Description:
Tetracycline Repressor, domain 2; mainly alpha; homodimer; DNA-binding; about 75% helix
Amino acid sequence: MTKPDLLIHTAFKLFYEQGIHAVGINTILNETGVAKKTLYHHFSSKEALVEAVLKYRDHIFMDWLTSRMLAAGEGKAAVLAIFDALDDWFHNQVPELLPFKGCFFVKANGEFSNHAVNALCLRHKHNITSFIQANLVNSTSALHAAELAQSISVLKEGAIAQAYVAGDLEAAKRAKAMAVALLG
Amino acid sequence: MTKPDLLIHTAFKLFYEQGIHAVGINTILNETGVAKKTLYHHFSSKEALVEAVLKYRDHIFMDWLTSRMLAAGEGKAAVLAIFDALDDWFHNQVPELLPFKGCFFVKANGEFSNHAVNALCLRHKHNITSFIQANLVNSTSALHAAELAQSISVLKEGAIAQAYVAGDLEAAKRAKAMAVALLG
DNA sequence: AACAAGAGAGACCGATTGGTCTACTTATAG
DNA sequence: CTATAAGTAGACCAATCGGTCTCTCTTGTT
Lengths: 184, 184
């Protein structure tokens, strides 16, 4: 594993567990054993590292989610597979996402305002909604598919938040039941 | 307004806008004009102030939500009124909650781990779910009311997260439609 | 009038923050 | 062989963090 990848990987783990502002550069350096000079050779600032971490997580998460959806088929079946995937995540059955601690993008978004971080979080959420919409567009009108995708996103966000903050690990199952009713 | 109240009120505003770790004690002092000695006379530490701010927001939010629910009637009507209230909040029609910037408890929870803050956030969420359940217990069995209250909470959390992170200000209307189908 | 308490201004503290710099070691490629 | 780049160790920097302390002024109580 290259030094930049090691830094990103470790920084993500610490940021995800403790929050971005709560983790200092020196903590990441100690954890990785990388020299400070090396970090600043690859990243111009902590902010640049944070943005790299967000893109890294976006990549990991999207790959996982889309492959779970594609494996379930097409259309509504793929959309409903989201909630089975979330259920596995909540119960720590998805090693590549690390032990469940809520949505990293929601947490990161809450720590900044009017910042590049917010734009990256927004883009991540839009990408997911767009992918959902693409899976619904053959079953109904484009307009309706867009509306449905937004509603499915509400259920997905709700399940994650409820599982994390309220500790309701079965939230994905409830969300799936509502999604089934919604998609008919 | 007493000094402690002024500090709590101002600290909340800053924490809500910028995040808890991102706002230092001195910023709060400058904003309020209160002396550092006075702050530490009333609060033993920043952590103590943070906890006071969480309890303050819990009080404001619960008062607002429960009064909106009670004004709409009882049972399912009260539960569905949650989503009308959220819609007003998202569109900044609720001055006492300040301009909408997501759920303060979700944000605060994300900045700490294994901390008194997390326990306060959990309690806040449980209080709301319990109040929802109390409004459903006359319409159905106690067991079913508990399940329904959890599902309604998923919709509520989803609407807030989606409105804030993805900027979908109509999320409450979508959530309400799903709640109607659920309670149907 | 006397006095204790509350509050303000702000100097000061050690620790930590993000970030720079020098000096030295490795490793790879022409 | 040599030149260039990557990496290490860690001293160092100004700024800021949360928190303490002294000194002064004001306020209300008796």
